[in-house]
């Protein structure tokens, strides 16, 4: 899909169709998983080379962020802003006349940036680029806040006076893993954006206005703040994971304690039963009138006494 934003067409982006004429004053060309015809059209409109997907995902920094004459080629190899596991690269080419973006997945940030032209008429391609970056960062901040809110709920679930069983704690650990994965995707996306902002600010081409430079400076500050917030969220995730493992270990220790008490309490009756089960000719207990009930009572008493002793020492507390 090829979407075209033009100068003076406030709030009216045009979706390109085959046979459509060349736009008069394009300011933002947005390619979403484009076909060959759409790529060829974008190249004709902008006079720029449309990057291939392999160029965007290349590990070499020189391939991801570079300048070529008047154009700046920027890319985010791992971009995910939908809150799902789907991540796809994003390529950005910007000149003093036009901004061209290449992406392969739908993005709420791009939709938000596109909608912003309804209230803000872009003065230049740099203005459109700043708007796009601001939308990406704002949505990333919102996702991090959502992760932080979910962590608060998860913390309340884990640290409760009621005793949780191992299955419930395992579900909490799975939730920690899900939130950590979402935060990792946010972190990867923001790392790519931060490199772009730093590069553009360092180059600061002549056609970039001071107003755009100020906006990028604010975005750079926001990214640093989000980086600190990411550290806090990551530490909280690690803390909740350790807490879940600690409660599971404590729960298992309770089980082992009960089994230990049970095994210790059954040793005396086993000994008594073993003694009275001996086959000797002369055993005084065989002639006792109440020998059998007395033996049963002694066995029960030998079970009860260790349990009462453990209870008195507090070793059964919580069980």
From TrEMBL:
Membrane topology per the entry is: Multi-pass membrane protein
Specify whether Iron-sulfur is a keyword of the entry: no
Q: Keywords of this protein's UniProt record, alphabetized?
A: Cell inner membrane, Cell membrane, Ion transport, Membrane, Transmembrane, Transmembrane helix, Transport, Zinc
Q: Where in the cell is it found?
A: Cell membrane
What's the domain of life for this entry?
Bacteria
Q: Which InterPro entries match?
A: CorA_cytoplasmic_dom, CorA_TM1_TM2, MgTranspt_CorA/ZnTranspt_ZntB
Q: Which Gene3D superfamilies match?
A: CorA soluble domain-like (3.30.460.20), Magnesium transport protein CorA, transmembrane region (1.20.58.340)
Per its UniProt record, what Pfam families does this chain match?
A: CorA
Q: Which residues cross the membrane?
A: 258-278, 290-310
Keyword check for Ion transport, yes or no. yes
Q: Which PANTHER family match?
A: CORA FAMILY METAL ION TRANSPORTER (EUROFUNG), ZINC TRANSPORT PROTEIN ZNTB
Q: What protein family is recorded?
A: Belongs to the CorA metal ion transporter (MIT) (TC 1.A.35) family.
According to UniProt, the name of this protein is: Magnesium transporter
